[in-house]
C-alpha cells in the first residue's frame, strides 16, 4: 500500500529541508581553500607592491640628488678642485662682487665606502643628499679644473636588495 499524499509531502519536505553533515563539510572545505587562495594572492601582491614602492623611493632619491647636482654644475661659475669622488665649484656670486667666497662654494663628495653617502657641503654645513651610495665617480674632459667643460657623473645606490644606477653628463654654461 502507498502512503497517503499528505505523508508523502511531509516526507519530501523533511528530505529537502536541510543539508547533510557531509555536504556542509565539503562546502566548508571548498570555501576554506578559496579563502586561502585569496589571502595568498593578497599577501603576495602586497609584498610586490612594497618592494616596488621601496625601489621607486630609492630611484627617486638618487634622481633628485643627480638633478640637483647637474643643475648646480651646469650653472657653476668656476670649477675649484676635482677628484674622482668629489668636485668643488663656485656656484653663485651671491653679493655680486666678482670674487669667490666660502658661502658661494659648493662641494659634492662621497664618503668612499660601500653603503656610504653623498654629501653636499656649503661652507661648514654638510647635507646628505643620497644615502646607501655603493659607488660614485666623476670623470672630466680635462685634468685641469680651469679647463673642464664636461663632467660625467656615475652613481649607484643600494637599499636592501634594490640597486639603482644613474649617470649624467654636464656641460657648464658659464665656464
Describe this structure in words.
38% of the residues lie in helices and 34% in strands. By secondary structure, the chain is α+β, with helices and mostly antiparallel strands. Strands 1-2-3-4-5-6-7 form a seven-stranded antiparallel beta sheet, covered by helices on one side. The protein is rod-shaped. The model has no long low-confidence stretch (mean pLDDT 85).
Could you outline the blueprint of secondary structure elements for this entry?
Blueprint: H1 5-16, H2 21-74, E1 78-82, E2 86-90, E3 105-110, E4 116-122, E5 125-140, E6 150-159, E7 162-171
Antiparallel strand pairs: 1-2, 2-3, 3-4, 4-5, 5-6, 6-7
What's the gist of this structure?
It contains 2 helices and 7 strands. By secondary structure, it is α+β, with helices and mostly antiparallel strands. The chain has one domain (44-171).
Question: Mind describing the biggest β-sheet?
Answer: 7 strands, antiparallel
Tally of domains: 1
The count of β-strands is 7
Q: How confident is the prediction overall: mean pLDDT?
A: 85
Q: Number of helical segments?
A: 2
Structural class comes to alpha+beta
